[in-house]
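Hello K.,

You asked for the raw outputs rather than the summary table, so here they are, unedited. I folded two proteins back to back in the same session to keep the settings identical. This is the first:
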Amino acid sequence: MQASSLRGSGWKLVLALGAVYFIWGSTYLGIRIAIETLPPFLMAGVRFLVAGALLLAWAGWKGASLPTAAIWRTSAVSGVLMFLGGNGAVVWAEQFVPSGLVALLVATVPLWIVLQDWAFGKGGPPGIGLSFGIIWGFAGVGILVTGGEIGMAGRDDLFGGLLVLLGAACWSAGSLVARYGPRPASAAVGIGVQKLAGGGALLFLGLVRGEVAALDPSGISAASVLAFAYLVVFGSLIGFSSYIWLLRNTTPAVASTYAYVNPAVALLLGWAVVGEPMSLRIGLAAFVILSAVIVITTQRTRGAPPRKGARWKKNRPSQEAAHFGDRS
């Protein structure tokens, strides 16, 4: 994309980047506040069911065609992996792990994508740059999880941190299913189906765990309700719309910058708003992990030819990319 076209976007570019940076970075804190008095899986399930229904309604209003059976299957499988496996791990872990540290661990998704893409035979072996990024990134994870600061109130919660890493791997797998499977003409349709499938799976898990039966409406705080509404309206809808605009009007390198800005925003908000820990070790881990993400996203957005089996189309956002930042 020419620099003149970026300058022509002007304030729209600033607003879109600001929305994606701040909104998606703040959803981790939003989750922490929401689950203070709302059951985690029930909250997440209802959030994505509502967001998915609204996205499909919007896509229908814009004239998008209904998805085929194959698209329904692919979107449902990827949605369950991403939202039940990925977001489910996040909402559960945030009961015990500070939201900023959760965001840092979720930032490893690009590392998992490179590894899984290679392991499943879709992409070639990572080159020197990607290999360095992967090793460097997981070194940062090691710094973070071995410091005894992964839990809240000064206690260690290594299991919670490892669960978030497993969730990041699930999100990566779901992203690859969406990338290589059939996709609708409208990204909103595919993402809406993903959110419905993942939200339904999260809601079912909440029911199985007895979250509905144990819910006391009188104990739900106004802060949790407002945080839930923020996650639906801003996190899943406005953030999505802003990122779609970036994909269509800027270069991939510009659009992908959220991947290393969001965790920094989450860390700062968690520290400033609710007093989450911030130390030299956490700062070092953040630097190592986020610099690794910069290396990997830069390598992957340099205009390399599509990998085997990929179905990229110019100026058309994939449903994998279009809510890649909606991991929280």
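The second followed immediately with the same parameters:
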Amino acid sequence: KNEGGLGMLIHKPRSLSSSQLKHLTSQLDLQRLWTTYLQPMLVERYSGSPGNVRIRQFIVEQLKALKASWQVELDAFEDRTPHGMVSFANVVATLDPAATWRLVFACHYDSKYFPRDKHGRVFVGATDSAVPCAILLELATALDHRLRKAKEQASKITLQLLFFDGEEAFREWSETDSLYGARHLAEHMGKTPHQLGITHLQAISLFVLLDLLGAPQPSFQNHFLATSGWFERLISLEKRLHRLGLLQSHSQEQLYFHRGSLYGSVEDDHAPFLRKGVPVLHLIATPFPNVWHTLEDTEANLDRPTVENLSKILAAFLAEYLAL
């Protein structure tokens, strides 16, 4: 069901010229993404663990250091899990809280709980979802100046970054053992008044969720008819960046974004928002990476060019959507 308010925004993005695309993508810094943002996250960080708290603080500190002066809030709560009561906290960063509408980019920062193996190794969830978190931090940093300008010009639509806690199940995935953070935040936003008689939830014009990114040769399908126009935009941006020679180790035969029949919905952090009528673009590699939910989901098994290429495609999408 749609809780109203969402039909009020018919959003027209701005197309970037070839020279604008070149300039925009040159502002991304893969080295910074990798060493400043990604590597510190490659630790055990299941919900309730010391690593989880450290990574949450790390994300908050990085966002607060930006010149665009984001409003950074914690949506903190406790919930019952198969491991007993656990403390969770989502990070909610809003560029301009006064703007009417929000483009949301989201990912989860917790890692799945696995017991250590006999060699003492822990699960670090590189694709799941350290890379998506690092990409979001890099986008906010690379576009800091542009985002600050958009905020100063009091643009009607702003960027909101959501870093969810508690996406992973502690045991078996179920309605009660999964998506702890997303369920709590969707409920909370649906009850919080914003402006023009709409809630924070209804202010989301598009919810883009990143998950399972960083393995080589990913494939992305469209999951929802309602946002197929935005998915088409990703398809065309990938092709444009390819033609401009801005993507690395990227062949025309192996495009990431695929037009085709709708791919069934995959349960993920977007689900509680989708059920409340929020338009969703779910960017999850399907099929899942081979290393999914194994101790092999590590930095060594990531593909750097893929991470860089995806960052460029998403930066272009973001800049066009927000007319940066």
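The chain has nine helices and eight strands.

Happy to rerun anything if the numbers look odd on your end.

Regards,
P.
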